[in-house]
């Protein structure tokens, strides 16, 4: 029941020279489910990443962050178990998986980045994962299979791809992501991986992954819960055209940002129980931070989100959320729009406001809420969804 | 379906000399529903209050805050309409109600405190309220009727009463409150009113109402939404014994705090859709503020709250919430208890942890979550509830 989101057409997902994919069924949590992805990167690939700022970050996050200081030859991703809240034993198990994959590839364990997603605080079945690695390495999987292999409560695989023309030739950017709940990324989403064959200097890649995260995964929220395992990784294999001119680098950055944004929005469209995709835009605030605070207050309010679900233009709930956001704003100056319709003016009901029109706007599967603070020039956008019966159902039954 | 909360026995609610109550049916929103309460206070009563810090505070809050600078002779409370997000017209309508009541009582409009609760952003039907005032003034209502008259989505009227012995005689403290959703008070709850016949100096009353709020209404959350209309008022009529000695004042303060705490907990017990009453206690933090941040992160997490609903000891969700609370804590030091059961130790699963026991603990209608940060001496307690299907249902259907 994702909102305006279907599984991508496999032919739209371009291979990325220098990237090889293999999936397997390891039986991490459920039998017969593809739950393991191995991504091999050509030697010399540049890789950068951003990770959760949750203080309880998972074992694989700790290790991946450390391994990023070295060259990276492979990523290994399992679903079904997050290997989080597992202490030093969790670190050992994640390293066991890295070492096993490194052994097969003839590289060092520190050249492997591990990623896990799934249930928290249960021991990672590392033996089952390592046993499945050879099968994954024999596979030549496509992007759609890779996107499917990393799903948990996702209902739709998430993958986007773009070709772009650089001065040195045609480059490709393709990415996959997973995530549907426990989503309020802070530096990164649940799991997002974007690959390009363009040759990009490693230092530049760091900035690129941060900028991409800031306009994509850092602008979405489902339930305000920042995961312990969030990671967003960008790899440039260098097997395609060289991006060294300022203009080519800007082109790659734009394409990476656009793929990341499509992935981030796909996560919200496929959010647990979501029936609406809502763009919350805050304008004319004093600072971007103030605008983000206000936008997240709206996007996190359970009352606002249930009103979205009910197509109920209970605008007071939105104004109340703006009011408690912590921004020291002047309530009498705030204007509020639903799509292009002015619904509140100077903090009160707009004279032209007609509830029927607001209901009609909110009945659509996609609409926007726009708050104009009228006290500065900054702005921010957050994408979110509604809070439905199914969110409760999915999360009450997740482990049963 | 409130959690361990029944309507109070009327005989347990002691009259407070100097306080007269009258309720009426004004038809603010629904016909035939008692929706108006007038509280008359004896001349010379001292009154203090704390109010919402939401920047979109409602018209009655703006007026009540201002009128508190003067002597107070009466409170007037309506349900069905919050008179919030209504701009200058809302202020006029609230003043119209104050003036009408003042006219009947032969006092000044500024000696009346107005309170409203209900739907936001709709014009207050002040005419219907003023028309009902004479009927309310003719009534001699009891506390239970008064508590009922201020309910909105509450299912149980909330009233508590205590007698206490001062050196100068026996004093009474009785209070009522309402609230079930949009609850994350900041300085005060939705609406809470506590009355005593003890004679307390006005200046002391200010501190008393703040202290009482800090140990009661400021320790609860249902959905993290701070209302536009929150108000907590304490009135001392002085028609009973004099509380001027330090010891008597401490006695009154203790009784006021205890009545306020019972009212605050009753709000959580009767929270929209609540099936569990959960005490979240954070211990050994560096500062009370840090402990409150952690406690509220747990108490607000939709994932934690749905796990409470499902009696699912998904402890990782609690650790994740602690991790993103913003407290700069060391995750490896955190211990977690469910009631008295150690479930996580040093940030990981406790060796003695048995899931069946945790499920049993969470199946109870009341249990506690205790996070021990092991980095200081501060502590904080927050009371909250679970997030159930019915929360979504109630809030999706509130206005329909």
Structure description:
The structure is a homodimer of 400-residue chains. The first copy, chain A, has 400 residues and is of the alpha+beta class. Chain A has eleven helices and 15 strands. In chain A, strands 13-12-11-14-10-15 form a six-stranded mixed sheet. In chain A, strands 3-9-8-7-6 form a five-stranded mixed sheet, with helices on both faces. The first copy, chain A, starts with 18 loop residues before the first strand and ends with a helix. The model of chain A is unreliable at 185-189 (pLDDT under 50).
Number of helices of chain A: 11
Strand element count of chain A: 15
Q: What portion of residues of chain A belong to β-strands?
A: 25-35%
- Oligomeric state of this protein: homodimer
Strand order within the widest beta sheet of chain A: 13-12-11-14-10-15
What would you give as the CATH superfamily of the largest domain in chain A?
L-amino peptidase D-ALA esterase/amidase
Instruction: Examine the secondary-structure arrangement and name the CATH architecture of the largest domain in chain A.
Output: 4-Layer Sandwich
Largest sheet of chain A: 6 strands, mixed
Topology of chain A as a string of helices (H) and strands (E): EEEHEHEHHEEEHEHEHHHEEEHEEH
Number of domains of chain A: 2
Rough shape of chain A?
Answer: globular
Helix content of chain A: 25-40%
Ranges of chain A with pLDDT <50 over ≥5 residues?
A: 185-189
């Amino acid at each position: 029941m994702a909102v305006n989101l279907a599984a991508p057409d496999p032919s739209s997902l371009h291979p990325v020279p220098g990237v090889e994919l293999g999936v397997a069924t390891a039986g991490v949590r459920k039998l017969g489910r593809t739950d393991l992805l191995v991504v091999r990167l050509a030697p010399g690939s540049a890789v950068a990443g951003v990770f959760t700022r949750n203080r309880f970050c998972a074992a694989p996050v700790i290790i991946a962050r450390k391994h990023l200081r070295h060259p990276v030859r492979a990523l290994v991703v399992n679903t079904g178990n997050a290997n989080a809240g597992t202490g030093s034993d969790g670190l050992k198990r994640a390293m066991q998986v890295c070492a096993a994959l490194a052994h097969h590839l003839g590289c060092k364990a520190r050249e492997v980045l591990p990623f896990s997603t799934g249930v928290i605080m249960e021991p990672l079945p590392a033996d089952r994962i390592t046993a499945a690695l050879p099968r994954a390495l024999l596979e030549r999987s496509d992007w759609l299979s890779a996107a499917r292999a990393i799903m948990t409560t996702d209902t739709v695989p998430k993958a986007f791809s773009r070709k772009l023309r650089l001065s040195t030739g045609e480059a490709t950017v393709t990415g996959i992501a997973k995530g549907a709940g426990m989503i309020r990324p802070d530096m990164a989403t649940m799991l997002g991986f974007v690959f390009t064959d363009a040759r990009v200097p490693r230092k530049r890649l760091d900035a690129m992954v941060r900028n991409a995260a800031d306009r994509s995964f850092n602008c979405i929220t489902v339930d305000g819960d920042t995961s312990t395992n969030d990671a967003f990784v960008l790899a440039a294999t260098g097997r395609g055209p060289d991006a060294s001119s300022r203009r080519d680098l800007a082109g790659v950055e734009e394409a990476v940002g656009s793929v990341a944004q499509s992935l981030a929005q796909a996560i919200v469209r496929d959010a647990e129980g979501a029936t609406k995709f809502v763009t919350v835009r805050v304008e004319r605030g004093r600072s971007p931070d103030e605008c983000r605070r206000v936008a997240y207050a709206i996007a996190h309010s359970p009352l606002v989100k249930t009103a979205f679900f009910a197509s109920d233009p209970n605008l007071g709930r939105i104004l109340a959320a703006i009011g408690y956001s912590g921004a020291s704003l002047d309530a009498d100056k705030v204007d509020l729009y639903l799509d292009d319709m002015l619904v509140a003016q100077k903090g009160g009901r707009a004279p032209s406001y007609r509830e029927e029109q607001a209901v009609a706007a909110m009945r659509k599967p996609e609409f926007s809420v726009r708050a104009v603070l009228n006290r500065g020039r900054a702005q921010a956008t957050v994408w979110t969804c509604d809070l439905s019966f199914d969110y409760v159902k999915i999360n009450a039954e997740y482990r049963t």
